[in-house]
Specification:
mainly alpha, transport, transmembrane helix
Amino acid sequence: MGKQPVKLKAVVYALSPFQQKIMTGLWKDLPEKIHHKVSENWISTILLLAPVIGTYSYAQYYREQDKLEHRF
């Protein structure tokens, strides 16, 4: 029993640059999706954003005070 070559058929999928209807599902109802995610996870959002905003505002305040200290 020898090895016999087997012909395989390859299927190649590609998107045409002229047909972009595939991407419309991502942008459909985008504000509703964002609102749903935020309203569902608002505690996690606050716990994530509060330290980031607090640190940023503290750094801005400290930098401004440092600039004002060297002014005179």
